[in-house]
Amino acid sequence: MALKDAKDLYKAGEKRWGTDEKTFIRIFSERSRAQLAAISAAYHDMYGSSLKKAVKHETSGKFEHGLLTILKCAENPAQYFAKVLRKAMKGLGTDDTTLIRIIVTRTEIDMQYIKAEYLRKYKKTLNDAVHSETSGHCRTFLLALLGPNC
């Protein structure tokens, strides 16, 4: 099925003049994370180019952003969420909504992998980053959800 979907995406995009967005929508919305990762690998093996590059070339705007987000999350969710958390805490001010949403929704799913990826990529624990970027009850709540520092 991954091979067929990879072929369908190629036919809907790079192989033709214009883009058949309906095919991209169907495949990206109906396939699981594991299936999308397999499709991405099959696409690369079959055409020597990444599906990510095809999406960038064939789409634009918020549609492109949505497809790329799904693809990044499918290929490596821990890396994707670590990057989003870093962006939420980087620079002046903190995007509390994003920070809270990701920590609350990922805590029981894959937070241990996100924490490990955050440490590997940014050389600082996620707990330490959250501690330095938040305060009060919000800090206490988020650190409780994150669990022990690793």
TrEMBL record:
The leader peptide range reads: none
Native species of this protein? Hibiscus sabdariffa (roselle)
Q: Which family does the similarity line name?
A: Belongs to the annexin family.
Matching Gene3D superfamilies: Annexin
Keyword field contains Repeat:
yes
Is Oxidoreductase among the key words of this record?
Answer: no
Q: Report the domain of life of the source organism.
A: Eukaryota
Protein's recorded name:
Annexin
Q: Keyword set for this entry?
A: Annexin, Calcium, Calcium/phospholipid-binding, Repeat
UniProt-listed InterPro entries? Annexin, Annexin_repeat, Annexin_repeat_CS, Annexin_sf
> Which spans of this chain does the record mark as coiled coil?
none
The root-end lineage is: Eukaryota, Viridiplantae, Streptophyta, Embryophyta, Tracheophyta
Its domain comment says:
A pair of annexin repeats may form one binding site for calcium and phospholipid.
